[in-house]
Design goal:
With 400 residues, this protein is α/β, with parallel strands linked by helices. The chain has 13 helices and 15 strands. It folds into 2 domains: 4-151 and 330-393, Periplasmic binding protein-like II (D-Maltodextrin-Binding Protein, domain 2, 3-Layer(aba) Sandwich), CATH 3.40.190.10; 153-301, 3-Layer(aba) Sandwich (D-Maltodextrin-Binding Protein, domain 2).
Length: 400
Protein backbone atom coordinates (compact mmCIF):
# COMPACT_ATOMS: atom_id res chain seq x y z
CA UNK A 1 0.00 0.00 0.00
CA UNK A 2 1.26 3.45 -0.87
CA UNK A 3 0.73 5.90 1.99
CA UNK A 4 -0.21 9.57 1.84
CA UNK A 5 3.35 10.47 2.84
CA UNK A 6 4.70 8.50 -0.13
CA UNK A 7 2.34 10.30 -2.48
CA UNK A 8 3.36 13.69 -1.01
CA UNK A 9 7.03 12.78 -1.47
CA UNK A 10 6.41 11.79 -5.09
CA UNK A 11 4.58 15.03 -5.77
CA UNK A 12 7.35 17.14 -4.23
CA UNK A 13 9.92 15.42 -6.40
CA UNK A 14 7.92 15.59 -9.64
CA UNK A 15 8.71 19.14 -10.66
CA UNK A 16 12.41 18.52 -10.07
CA UNK A 17 12.63 15.44 -12.25
CA UNK A 18 10.23 16.28 -15.07
CA UNK A 19 13.02 17.00 -17.55
CA UNK A 20 14.92 13.86 -16.59
CA UNK A 21 11.82 11.70 -16.97
CA UNK A 22 11.29 13.12 -20.39
CA UNK A 23 14.64 11.73 -21.50
CA UNK A 24 14.24 8.40 -19.76
CA UNK A 25 10.76 7.34 -20.75
CA UNK A 26 9.60 6.56 -24.26
CA UNK A 27 5.93 6.56 -25.10
CA UNK A 28 3.37 4.71 -27.15
CA UNK A 29 0.04 6.14 -28.06
CA UNK A 30 -3.34 5.67 -29.58
CA UNK A 31 -7.01 5.16 -28.75
CA UNK A 32 -10.53 6.12 -29.81
CA UNK A 33 -11.03 9.76 -30.49
CA UNK A 34 -13.65 12.38 -31.10
CA UNK A 35 -14.42 13.84 -34.51
CA UNK A 36 -12.92 17.27 -34.85
CA UNK A 37 -15.15 20.30 -35.06
CA UNK A 38 -15.56 21.38 -38.69
CA UNK A 39 -13.93 24.73 -37.90
CA UNK A 40 -10.80 23.04 -36.60
CA UNK A 41 -9.95 20.65 -39.44
CA UNK A 42 -6.19 20.22 -39.51
CA UNK A 43 -3.69 19.83 -42.31
CA UNK A 44 -0.69 17.54 -42.09
CA UNK A 45 2.54 19.21 -41.03
CA UNK A 46 6.09 18.38 -42.11
CA UNK A 47 6.43 14.57 -42.34
CA UNK A 48 8.40 12.91 -39.56
CA UNK A 49 10.33 9.68 -39.50
CA UNK A 50 8.22 6.53 -39.53
CA UNK A 51 8.78 4.35 -36.41
CA UNK A 52 10.03 0.86 -37.10
CA UNK A 53 7.10 -1.59 -37.38
CA UNK A 54 6.99 -4.59 -35.10
CA UNK A 55 9.21 -3.08 -32.40
CA UNK A 56 6.62 -2.84 -29.63
CA UNK A 57 6.79 -4.91 -26.47
CA UNK A 58 4.40 -7.84 -26.03
CA UNK A 59 2.27 -5.76 -23.62
CA UNK A 60 1.66 -3.09 -26.26
CA UNK A 61 4.13 -0.52 -24.97
CA UNK A 62 6.69 1.05 -27.27
CA UNK A 63 4.53 1.53 -30.35
CA UNK A 64 4.63 5.31 -30.07
CA UNK A 65 8.22 6.47 -29.87
CA UNK A 66 8.36 9.62 -31.96
CA UNK A 67 6.43 11.87 -34.31
CA UNK A 68 4.44 10.14 -37.04
CA UNK A 69 4.17 11.19 -40.66
CA UNK A 70 0.91 12.98 -41.42
CA UNK A 71 -0.47 13.19 -37.89
CA UNK A 72 -1.87 16.43 -36.48
CA UNK A 73 0.49 18.34 -34.21
CA UNK A 74 -2.15 19.45 -31.70
CA UNK A 75 -5.15 17.86 -29.98
CA UNK A 76 -7.77 19.61 -27.85
CA UNK A 77 -9.59 17.93 -25.00
CA UNK A 78 -11.72 18.96 -22.03
CA UNK A 79 -13.56 17.47 -19.11
CA UNK A 80 -12.98 15.83 -15.74
CA UNK A 81 -10.96 17.56 -13.03
CA UNK A 82 -10.61 14.22 -11.21
CA UNK A 83 -7.64 13.14 -13.43
CA UNK A 84 -6.36 16.66 -14.27
CA UNK A 85 -3.17 16.26 -12.22
CA UNK A 86 -2.42 13.00 -14.02
CA UNK A 87 -3.26 14.35 -17.47
CA UNK A 88 -0.97 17.33 -16.96
CA UNK A 89 1.90 14.91 -16.42
CA UNK A 90 0.87 12.60 -19.26
CA UNK A 91 0.50 15.26 -21.90
CA UNK A 92 3.73 16.95 -20.96
CA UNK A 93 5.55 13.64 -21.46
CA UNK A 94 3.61 12.92 -24.64
CA UNK A 95 4.66 16.17 -26.28
CA UNK A 96 8.31 15.40 -25.47
CA UNK A 97 7.94 11.99 -27.10
CA UNK A 98 5.93 12.82 -30.22
CA UNK A 99 5.91 16.58 -30.64
CA UNK A 100 2.09 16.51 -30.44
CA UNK A 101 0.75 19.14 -28.05
CA UNK A 102 -2.33 18.00 -26.14
CA UNK A 103 -4.29 20.94 -24.76
CA UNK A 104 -6.54 19.80 -21.90
CA UNK A 105 -9.03 21.97 -20.03
CA UNK A 106 -10.20 20.80 -16.60
CA UNK A 107 -13.85 21.91 -16.79
CA UNK A 108 -15.62 19.00 -15.10
CA UNK A 109 -17.10 15.81 -16.50
CA UNK A 110 -20.36 17.50 -17.46
CA UNK A 111 -18.42 19.95 -19.62
CA UNK A 112 -16.37 17.12 -21.09
CA UNK A 113 -19.47 15.19 -22.11
CA UNK A 114 -21.06 18.28 -23.65
CA UNK A 115 -17.87 19.25 -25.50
CA UNK A 116 -17.39 15.86 -27.12
CA UNK A 117 -21.10 15.52 -27.86
CA UNK A 118 -21.08 18.91 -29.61
CA UNK A 119 -17.88 18.09 -31.51
CA UNK A 120 -16.01 21.14 -30.21
CA UNK A 121 -13.04 19.09 -28.93
CA UNK A 122 -11.03 16.16 -30.23
CA UNK A 123 -11.67 14.15 -27.07
CA UNK A 124 -13.60 14.51 -23.83
CA UNK A 125 -13.02 13.17 -20.33
CA UNK A 126 -15.40 12.01 -17.62
CA UNK A 127 -15.52 10.07 -14.37
CA UNK A 128 -19.24 9.40 -14.72
CA UNK A 129 -20.18 7.31 -17.76
CA UNK A 130 -22.49 8.91 -20.30
CA UNK A 131 -26.14 7.93 -20.02
CA UNK A 132 -27.99 6.22 -22.85
CA UNK A 133 -29.82 9.48 -23.54
CA UNK A 134 -26.53 11.43 -23.72
CA UNK A 135 -25.09 8.83 -26.08
CA UNK A 136 -28.10 9.19 -28.41
CA UNK A 137 -27.76 12.98 -28.47
CA UNK A 138 -24.12 12.93 -29.58
CA UNK A 139 -23.83 14.62 -32.96
CA UNK A 140 -21.49 12.29 -34.81
CA UNK A 141 -22.37 8.77 -33.79
CA UNK A 142 -21.09 6.31 -31.24
CA UNK A 143 -18.78 7.55 -28.49
CA UNK A 144 -16.25 5.20 -26.93
CA UNK A 145 -15.35 5.27 -23.22
CA UNK A 146 -11.62 4.53 -23.06
CA UNK A 147 -10.53 3.84 -19.44
CA UNK A 148 -7.53 5.94 -18.39
CA UNK A 149 -7.00 5.27 -14.68
CA UNK A 150 -8.69 4.45 -11.39
CA UNK A 151 -8.93 6.68 -8.36
CA UNK A 152 -10.50 7.22 -4.97
CA UNK A 153 -13.03 9.90 -4.09
CA UNK A 154 -12.47 10.75 -0.44
CA UNK A 155 -14.21 12.52 2.39
CA UNK A 156 -11.87 15.41 3.16
CA UNK A 157 -12.21 17.69 6.17
CA UNK A 158 -10.63 20.53 8.15
CA UNK A 159 -10.66 19.96 11.93
CA UNK A 160 -7.64 21.74 13.46
CA UNK A 161 -7.92 19.99 16.83
CA UNK A 162 -7.40 16.54 15.33
CA UNK A 163 -4.04 17.10 13.64
CA UNK A 164 -3.17 14.01 11.61
CA UNK A 165 -5.87 11.79 13.14
CA UNK A 166 -7.94 10.09 10.45
CA UNK A 167 -11.67 10.11 11.05
CA UNK A 168 -13.67 6.98 10.30
CA UNK A 169 -16.95 7.23 8.44
CA UNK A 170 -19.67 4.62 8.08
CA UNK A 171 -21.97 4.67 5.08
CA UNK A 172 -24.79 5.85 7.33
CA UNK A 173 -22.71 8.74 8.65
CA UNK A 174 -21.69 10.00 5.21
CA UNK A 175 -25.26 9.80 3.92
CA UNK A 176 -26.49 11.59 7.04
CA UNK A 177 -23.96 14.41 6.63
CA UNK A 178 -24.78 15.09 2.99
CA UNK A 179 -28.53 14.76 3.60
CA UNK A 180 -28.20 17.46 6.27
CA UNK A 181 -29.28 15.14 9.09
CA UNK A 182 -25.88 15.15 10.83
CA UNK A 183 -24.84 18.74 11.50
CA UNK A 184 -22.23 18.57 14.29
CA UNK A 185 -18.87 16.86 14.41
CA UNK A 186 -19.61 15.24 17.76
CA UNK A 187 -22.87 13.68 16.54
CA UNK A 188 -23.46 10.27 18.19
CA UNK A 189 -23.21 8.48 14.82
CA UNK A 190 -19.70 9.85 14.25
CA UNK A 191 -18.75 9.18 17.85
CA UNK A 192 -19.74 5.55 17.34
CA UNK A 193 -17.51 5.39 14.25
CA UNK A 194 -14.60 6.95 16.19
CA UNK A 195 -14.33 5.62 19.75
CA UNK A 196 -11.66 7.43 21.75
CA UNK A 197 -11.47 10.39 19.36
CA UNK A 198 -12.34 13.75 20.91
CA UNK A 199 -14.59 15.11 18.17
CA UNK A 200 -15.31 18.84 18.58
CA UNK A 201 -18.75 20.25 19.39
CA UNK A 202 -18.74 22.33 16.20
CA UNK A 203 -21.19 22.86 13.38
CA UNK A 204 -20.26 21.24 10.06
CA UNK A 205 -19.86 23.17 6.83
CA UNK A 206 -20.67 20.83 3.95
CA UNK A 207 -19.01 21.52 0.58
CA UNK A 208 -20.04 19.93 -2.72
CA UNK A 209 -19.45 20.46 -6.43
CA UNK A 210 -21.39 23.22 -8.18
CA UNK A 211 -20.53 22.04 -11.70
CA UNK A 212 -21.32 18.87 -13.62
CA UNK A 213 -18.82 16.45 -12.18
CA UNK A 214 -17.73 12.84 -12.52
CA UNK A 215 -16.32 13.08 -9.00
CA UNK A 216 -19.86 13.90 -7.90
CA UNK A 217 -21.15 10.96 -9.93
CA UNK A 218 -18.87 8.52 -8.09
CA UNK A 219 -19.74 10.08 -4.72
CA UNK A 220 -23.52 10.01 -5.16
CA UNK A 221 -23.39 6.63 -6.89
CA UNK A 222 -21.86 5.35 -3.67
CA UNK A 223 -24.40 7.14 -1.46
CA UNK A 224 -27.25 5.71 -3.56
CA UNK A 225 -25.78 2.23 -3.16
CA UNK A 226 -25.62 2.46 0.62
CA UNK A 227 -28.64 4.67 1.47
CA UNK A 228 -32.16 4.06 0.23
CA UNK A 229 -33.11 7.52 1.48
CA UNK A 230 -30.39 9.15 -0.62
CA UNK A 231 -31.39 7.08 -3.65
CA UNK A 232 -35.05 8.09 -3.41
CA UNK A 233 -34.56 11.76 -2.46
CA UNK A 234 -31.43 12.75 -4.41
CA UNK A 235 -30.31 9.96 -6.75
CA UNK A 236 -27.32 9.67 -9.09
CA UNK A 237 -25.90 12.02 -11.71
CA UNK A 238 -23.02 14.31 -12.52
CA UNK A 239 -25.20 17.07 -11.04
CA UNK A 240 -27.83 16.61 -8.32
CA UNK A 241 -30.05 18.82 -6.18
CA UNK A 242 -28.04 18.92 -2.98
CA UNK A 243 -30.05 18.92 0.28
CA UNK A 244 -27.38 20.97 2.05
CA UNK A 245 -24.03 22.67 1.58
CA UNK A 246 -21.91 25.19 -0.29
CA UNK A 247 -21.04 24.71 -3.96
CA UNK A 248 -17.55 25.00 -5.45
CA UNK A 249 -16.27 24.44 -8.95
CA UNK A 250 -13.92 21.55 -9.66
CA UNK A 251 -11.93 19.34 -7.31
CA UNK A 252 -9.66 22.35 -6.90
CA UNK A 253 -12.55 24.51 -5.74
CA UNK A 254 -13.89 22.02 -3.22
CA UNK A 255 -10.42 21.44 -1.75
CA UNK A 256 -9.92 25.21 -1.55
CA UNK A 257 -13.20 25.75 0.29
CA UNK A 258 -12.46 22.98 2.77
CA UNK A 259 -8.95 24.34 3.35
CA UNK A 260 -10.15 27.85 4.17
CA UNK A 261 -13.19 26.88 6.28
CA UNK A 262 -12.59 25.25 9.67
CA UNK A 263 -14.90 22.33 10.49
CA UNK A 264 -15.86 21.83 6.85
CA UNK A 265 -16.20 18.56 4.97
CA UNK A 266 -16.29 17.85 1.24
CA UNK A 267 -15.38 15.19 -1.30
CA UNK A 268 -12.50 15.25 -3.79
CA UNK A 269 -10.20 12.91 -5.67
CA UNK A 270 -7.50 11.74 -3.24
CA UNK A 271 -4.61 13.70 -4.74
CA UNK A 272 -6.36 17.04 -4.15
CA UNK A 273 -6.72 16.34 -0.42
CA UNK A 274 -3.10 15.23 -0.18
CA UNK A 275 -1.77 18.27 -2.04
CA UNK A 276 -3.74 20.60 0.23
CA UNK A 277 -2.70 18.76 3.43
CA UNK A 278 -6.31 18.10 4.39
CA UNK A 279 -7.73 15.29 6.49
CA UNK A 280 -8.77 12.15 4.63
CA UNK A 281 -11.37 9.80 6.05
CA UNK A 282 -11.30 6.01 6.23
CA UNK A 283 -14.62 4.58 5.03
CA UNK A 284 -16.40 1.44 6.24
CA UNK A 285 -16.77 -0.92 3.31
CA UNK A 286 -19.28 -3.61 2.45
CA UNK A 287 -17.30 -6.16 4.47
CA UNK A 288 -17.49 -3.97 7.58
CA UNK A 289 -13.85 -2.84 7.47
CA UNK A 290 -12.74 0.78 7.76
CA UNK A 291 -10.40 1.17 4.80
CA UNK A 292 -7.90 3.89 3.96
CA UNK A 293 -8.06 5.17 0.37
CA UNK A 294 -4.90 3.97 -1.36
CA UNK A 295 -3.67 2.51 -4.61
CA UNK A 296 -4.04 -1.02 -3.26
CA UNK A 297 -7.58 -0.53 -1.96
CA UNK A 298 -8.71 1.13 -5.22
CA UNK A 299 -7.11 -1.62 -7.31
CA UNK A 300 -8.93 -4.17 -5.15
CA UNK A 301 -12.22 -2.45 -6.01
CA UNK A 302 -11.49 -2.81 -9.73
CA UNK A 303 -10.54 -6.49 -9.58
CA UNK A 304 -14.08 -7.81 -10.01
CA UNK A 305 -15.02 -5.27 -12.66
CA UNK A 306 -12.08 -6.28 -14.82
CA UNK A 307 -13.57 -9.73 -15.31
CA UNK A 308 -17.21 -8.77 -15.76
CA UNK A 309 -17.19 -5.26 -17.22
CA UNK A 310 -19.66 -4.46 -20.02
CA UNK A 311 -18.29 -4.48 -23.58
CA UNK A 312 -18.57 -0.68 -23.81
CA UNK A 313 -16.38 -0.40 -20.66
CA UNK A 314 -18.87 1.75 -18.76
CA UNK A 315 -18.88 0.46 -15.19
CA UNK A 316 -19.44 1.37 -11.56
CA UNK A 317 -17.14 -0.13 -8.93
CA UNK A 318 -18.49 1.61 -5.82
CA UNK A 319 -19.27 -0.45 -2.72
CA UNK A 320 -17.53 -3.50 -4.17
CA UNK A 321 -17.05 -6.78 -2.31
CA UNK A 322 -13.82 -7.60 -0.45
CA UNK A 323 -12.12 -6.91 2.88
CA UNK A 324 -9.45 -4.61 1.45
CA UNK A 325 -11.71 -2.62 -0.89
CA UNK A 326 -12.02 1.14 -0.60
CA UNK A 327 -15.73 1.58 -1.37
CA UNK A 328 -15.75 4.99 -3.11
CA UNK A 329 -13.58 4.14 -6.13
CA UNK A 330 -14.10 4.69 -9.81
CA UNK A 331 -12.76 4.73 -13.34
CA UNK A 332 -11.99 7.86 -15.28
CA UNK A 333 -12.47 7.69 -19.07
CA UNK A 334 -11.33 9.48 -22.20
CA UNK A 335 -14.21 9.97 -24.63
CA UNK A 336 -13.82 9.64 -28.39
CA UNK A 337 -15.98 9.12 -31.45
CA UNK A 338 -15.76 5.75 -33.14
CA UNK A 339 -16.02 7.32 -36.60
CA UNK A 340 -13.56 10.12 -37.35
CA UNK A 341 -13.64 12.67 -40.18
CA UNK A 342 -10.11 14.15 -40.17
CA UNK A 343 -7.33 11.66 -40.93
CA UNK A 344 -4.52 13.73 -39.39
CA UNK A 345 -6.49 14.22 -36.17
CA UNK A 346 -7.61 10.58 -36.11
CA UNK A 347 -4.02 9.38 -36.45
CA UNK A 348 -2.80 11.65 -33.67
CA UNK A 349 -5.70 10.84 -31.37
CA UNK A 350 -5.62 7.07 -31.69
CA UNK A 351 -1.86 7.11 -31.13
CA UNK A 352 -2.30 9.25 -28.02
CA UNK A 353 -5.03 6.99 -26.67
CA UNK A 354 -2.93 3.87 -27.22
CA UNK A 355 -0.02 5.51 -25.41
CA UNK A 356 -2.33 6.61 -22.59
CA UNK A 357 -3.60 3.07 -21.97
CA UNK A 358 -0.14 1.49 -22.24
CA UNK A 359 3.06 3.48 -21.72
CA UNK A 360 1.45 6.30 -19.70
CA UNK A 361 0.22 3.91 -17.02
CA UNK A 362 3.70 3.92 -15.43
CA UNK A 363 3.08 7.52 -14.30
CA UNK A 364 -0.19 6.79 -12.46
CA UNK A 365 1.20 5.47 -9.20
CA UNK A 366 3.49 8.40 -8.40
CA UNK A 367 0.51 10.76 -8.63
CA UNK A 368 -1.89 8.71 -6.55
CA UNK A 369 -3.92 7.00 -9.29
CA UNK A 370 -4.20 3.24 -9.76
CA UNK A 371 -3.04 1.79 -13.11
CA UNK A 372 -5.53 -0.07 -15.26
CA UNK A 373 -5.76 -3.85 -14.80
CA UNK A 374 -4.35 -5.77 -17.77
CA UNK A 375 -7.78 -7.15 -18.64
CA UNK A 376 -9.15 -3.61 -19.00
CA UNK A 377 -6.18 -2.53 -21.14
CA UNK A 378 -6.81 -5.41 -23.56
CA UNK A 379 -10.47 -4.46 -23.88
CA UNK A 380 -9.53 -0.81 -24.46
CA UNK A 381 -7.24 -1.95 -27.28
CA UNK A 382 -10.27 -3.34 -29.07
CA UNK A 383 -11.96 0.04 -28.99
CA UNK A 384 -8.89 1.88 -30.24
CA UNK A 385 -8.36 -0.54 -33.10
CA UNK A 386 -11.97 -0.22 -34.25
CA UNK A 387 -11.88 3.58 -34.63
CA UNK A 388 -12.12 4.46 -38.30
CA UNK A 389 -11.56 7.39 -40.63
CA UNK A 390 -12.71 7.30 -44.24
CA UNK A 391 -13.78 3.68 -43.76
CA UNK A 392 -10.27 2.61 -42.74
CA UNK A 393 -8.68 1.82 -39.38
CA UNK A 394 -7.38 5.10 -37.90
CA UNK A 395 -4.58 3.58 -35.78
CA UNK A 396 -1.57 3.50 -38.11
CA UNK A 397 0.62 0.87 -36.45
CA UNK A 398 0.60 -2.87 -37.17
CA UNK A 399 -0.39 -5.01 -34.19
CA UNK A 400 0.93 -8.48 -33.49
Amino acid sequence: MISKSAIISSISKWNCITLLLGSLFLAAACSPSAPPHPATQSTPTQPAAMPTPGSAAADGTGLVKAAFEGEAKALNGAGASFPAVLYSKWFNEYEKTTGVKVNYQSIGSGGGIKSISDGTVDFGATDGPMTEEQMKLAKSGEIYHVPAALGAVVATYNIPELGNTSIKFSAESLAGIFLGKITKWNDPALATDNPGVNLPNKDMIVVHRSDGSGTTYIWVDYLSNVSSEWKSKVGVGTSVNWPVGLGAKGNEGVAGEVKQNKYSIGYVELIYAVQNKLGVGNVKNKAGKYVEPSLDSVTAAAAGAAQNIAPDLRASIVNADGDGVYPISGFTWLLAYKTQTDKAKATALTRMLWWATHDAQKFNTELGYAPLPNEIVKKAEGQILSITVGGQKAFPHPIG
